[in-house]
Amino acid sequence: MSRVGTLEANRTVEAVWRIESARVIAGLTRMVHDVGLAEELAQDALVAALEQWPESGVPDNPGAWLMAIAKRRAIDQFRRRETLERKVVEIGRDLETQELPTAEPDFDAIDSNISDDLLRLVFISCHPVLSTEARVALTLRLLGGLTTEEIARAFLTPEPTIAQRIVRAKKTLAKKKVPFEVPGAAELGERLASVCEVVYLVFNEGYSATGGSDWVRPTLCEDAMRLGRMLAELVPAEREVHGLIALMEIQASRTRARVGPGGEPVLLLDQDRRRWDQLLINRGLAALDRAAKLPGQAGPYEVQAAIAACHARARTPEQTDWTRIAALYARLVQVLPSPVVELHRAVAMSMAFGPEIGLRIVDELVDEPLLKNYHLLPSVRGDLLGKLDRHAEASAEFARAAELTRNEVEQRLLRDRAAKAAARAGELG
Question: Which residues constitute the signal peptide according to the record (predicted)?
Answer without folding.
Answer: none
